[in-house]
Amino acid sequence: MDRSTPPHIFTLIVLTGLGALSMNIFLPSLPAMSEHFSTDYRVMQLSVALYLAGSAVLQIVVGPISDRYGRRPVLLWGIGIFLVATLGCILAPTIEVFLAFRMLQAVVVVGLVLGRAVVRDMYPQDQAASQIGYVTMGMAVVPMIGPAIGGVLDETLGWQANFWMLAILGMLVMALTWRDLGETAARGSESFTEQFAQYPELFASRRFWGYCLTAAFASGAFFAFLGGAPYVGSEVFGLSASLVGLYFGTAAVGYFFGSYVSGRYSMRVGINGMVLWGSILSATGPLLTLLLFLLGFKTALVFFGLMTIVGIGNGMVLPNATSGMLSVRPHLAGTASGLGGAITIGGGAALSALAGALLTGGNGAYPLILIMLVTSLLAVGAILYTMQRERRVTGT
What we know:
Growth Hormone, Chain: A; 83% helix; mainly alpha; 396 residues; 18 helices
């Protein structure tokens, strides 16, 4: 390890994985946390929606800050603040205090934003998509087992144990980042006003918007799943916290394999082809679920099992769509990563909150399935528009 050189791929995996783990390890504990804080599930579910909203806002500023001061210092400060926020979640006396610290925990999104930007600093477009695919493939391992571990911790040690685990892992990741991650971006000389003045250059690119909306709609199905599945698992299917955590792994297993496909074939197929087929797969999962439910096969195995297909689709879409949005204006890679991530996560926050709000009306899992289906179909439409726009620009 040498902090004067670019990082090992493992360092980027754990940086992005910490944020993913922070987002989902405690999800099986949501019903128990509702009881602990004496609040309604819809209020407790805001711990997901507010976290995503905080992530979206932070990503808008993280990119320009890292383009100005470099990736390394922003990462180290971000992880440090995350550790303080995690302790605040553990010691929170009320739901209001917990939600405030939970939103502050979202600062760990620096790992996701700048992990991708570091890859783009080091590689050209198609190779960057391949490398991002490998990073997210490794990242998927963590959230794949996170909810299962979180469910066991909840049943044996209480919901706070999940946050203690995040604190310990955060300290280890900070030490690894300090030792291994060297600076990969040239320090910019622009002021923040000049940095933010570059946003219109990205806003003017229809291809940038196309990739952003594709990523937002495709991942929107997954974020809706995060927001609604704990309720569906515990209230609709009557599963224990540990079983809900185990079933959560199905989507992450799919994401793992989809990311592997991205890493293996993105350079051969091209990013647009990978995004298109991934979007189609993401829509296939909830469509099959809806059909089977209408035929009477309303089981936890059907619902959670078919989420594997959604995960595969997301694993194909996100690395390639991310590489696309970062490559539209390569000199603004950090800014594009932050802005594109904000659009993606912001949409996910809204869909997560919507799923939590709609799943209390006695309609079972149907509202969640329909949200996932509609957003996945919108992703297909967005990438088809992007491909058409690219053909017009390039004349091919």
